[in-house]
Amino acid sequence: MLGFFRDGTAVALILFHALMHIAAADEEVVLTDHFLVQLHEGTDEDAHQLALEHGFRSARKVPFGEGLYHLYPQDIPKTQRKRSLRRHLTQDQRVKNVFPQEGFGRQKRGYRDISNLDVNMSDPLFTKQWYLINTGQADGTPGLDLNVAEAWSMGYTGKGVTIAIMDDGIDYLHPDLALNYNAEASFDFSSNDPYPYPRYTDDWFNSHGTRCAGEVSAVSNNNICGVGVAYNSKVAGIRMLDQPFMTDIIEASSISHMPQIIDIYSASWGPTDDGKTVDGPRELTLQAMADGVNKGRGGKGSIYVWASGDGGSYDDCNCDGYASSMWTISINSAINDGRTALYDESCSSTLASTFSNGRKRNPEAGVATTDLYGNCTLRHSGTSAAAPEAAGVFALALEANPDLTWRDLQHLTVLTSKRNKLHDEVHQWRRNGVGLEFNHLFGYGVLDAGGMVKLAREWKAVPERFHCVAGSMQEIHKIQSGNKLMLTITTDACQGKDNFVRYLEHVQAVITVNASRRGDLNINMTSPMGTKSILLSRRPRDDDTKVGFDKWPFMTTHTWGEDPRGTWLLEVGFQGESPQNGVLKEWTLMLHGTQSAPYIDQVVRDYQSKLAMSKKEELEEELDEAVERSLKSLLSKSN
C-alpha cells in the first residue's frame, strides 16, 4: 500500500484493498511501458526532463499525492527491457519511489448490433427514441420509458451540469455534439493530450464513447440524429480505454479528472464479462474514487455511474468491483417491452435500471444516438447504453437541485425508481423491511426522471453517514454439496457508540472462501427484517479451484432503510451437477448508513424534543412507527 494516501473513508477503503489481490491471482501479470514515479522534489519541467532522459515521451503530474508523475512511453516501443527501465529510474537520485504499472483487461460494454439499417437523415430520430417517450414503437410497451417528458416540461434539461464519458474518445466535431462539448473538462489519457478524439479503425470499434455521449447531451431541435436525455448539459470526453492494456494510473487519473468541473462520470466498461473473472479497481483507482465522493463537486461528491455488465446469466455483477462499489450507482437495463435483455447480469448491488435494445431484432428497437464522423445510429445497445441514460437523468436532478450530494442521488434513485411494466422471468419483485419494492435484476426499478426531479427540488440533504463493523467470524467452516452452511451474526449495529447505524444504506459481507469449483458457489444473506439478498449466483463458466474469494466485499442495496439490529443469516452452498466442497474462512459484516432517519427530519426533531421529557423506550417505539408512516407517505407521494 502506498504510504502517502489519507482519507476519511478508511473503513470501507481497507476492505476494498482485497480487490487487488484477487485480480493479481486471477490474471497473468503484464508489465506496461507506463510508470508512476515519486520525486523527492522538483517542478513539472524537472519531471519532463527526467522522462526524456530515460526514454519516455512525456510526464504528467497526477492530482493525488505529493511529487507524483505519470511517465508516458514513446509511440514506438523501445527495445530496452521494462525491468531495466525500473532499475535505471530507481537509481536516479531525483526519484524517491518507482511504481511500474501492470496491465489488465477492461472491456467496453455493449457491442450487440440488432440490425443494419440505412438511417433516414432528413428528419430527427426523436420518434425512434422509445426510451424517452414510449408510444409502442418497435413492438414496445407504451408508457415504459424514462419519463423525461415530465422533467422537460418542468424546464429541466441538464443546463449547467457536465457529464464526462470515460471511454474510447468522443467525436467532438459531430454537429449534434459540438455545441454541448466541454473542451476544458476533456482529456486524452491514452496519449496525454487535451484532444480525446477516437482513433480510426475500419470496423468503427471506437464509436463507443461517441454513442454514449449522444445519449446524454445530443443537441435538440437541430434536425440531426436524436435528442439527449439532458440535451442542454455539457459533455466531456475522457479517452482512456484505447490501449492494449489498462493501468491503474490511467483509471485513477480519469476518475479524478477535474472533479470540481465534472459533475457526473459515466463508465460503460469494466472487467471482462466472461463469467469467470473476479476483478475490480486497483489501489490508485480506489483512492481516486474515495477522494471523488469526499471532495468532488465542492465536497458534495462526484457521481459515478456504472454499467452493471453484459455477462448475462453466466455472470454475476457482484464479481465486478466497480459495479458493486458503494461509491458507484450501478445501472442495469431493460428492453422496450419490459423484459430483461439476454445479456443482463443480476446482482444485489444494482441500484436501478434504464433501457437498451430489444430481443426481436426489430431495426428500431435499439438505442438511437450519435455515431462517428457526423453519422447517427439505431444500433447502440447493451448496458453500455443504459449507464449514459442514467447519467442524463441524474443531470436533470442536479439542475433541479445543485446541492445534491452523491448519497442524495442514491436515495432519490431508490425512492423514485419504479417497477412500471418491468418483468423478470426468473426473480420476483419483493418488498424489503420498510416497504421498498426491489428486484434482484432491475434493482429498485426503472429511473423516473419526472419523479426524481420533483422530489429533488424539495430535497434536504440526508444525515451524516456512519460505518459499523457489525461482527466477524474468522473460524474455518467446511462446505459440502447437498448441505448448506448456515452462519449467523447478531449485532446491535454499534448502538451506544459514535458510529451507530440505525437506518441502512449499503451492506457488505466481506468473505474469504475457497472451493473445488468457484463457479458453483451460491451465497445468500438475510437481514434481521427478513430481506434475503442473493450475494452470489452460480457462474457455470467459472472453473477456478485455487483463488476463490479473498476478503471480497459482496454488497447489497436491498436492505435500504432497514434497521440492522438483530440476527443476520449467511447461507453458503453449491449449485451444479457435480459434487463440490469448500472452506469458508471469514465473514465480516459491514453496515453503512445513518443514525437519524432520512427524509423526515421534522418528525425526528419533534420526537427528540419529547424524549428529553418522557419515557424514552415508549417514545422510541412511537418514533419508529412515525418514521415508518412518514416513509410510506413519501413513497406514495413519489409514486
Automatic annotation (TrEMBL):
The keyword Hydrolase applies. It catalyses: Release of protein hormones and neuropeptides from their precursors, generally by hydrolysis of -Lys-Arg-|- bonds. Its main location: secreted. It is found in: Secreted. It is an enzyme of class 3 (hydrolase). Keywords: Cleavage on pair of basic residues, Disulfide bond, Glycoprotein, Hydrolase, Protease, Secreted, Serine protease, Signal, Zymogen. This is Neuroendocrine convertase 2.
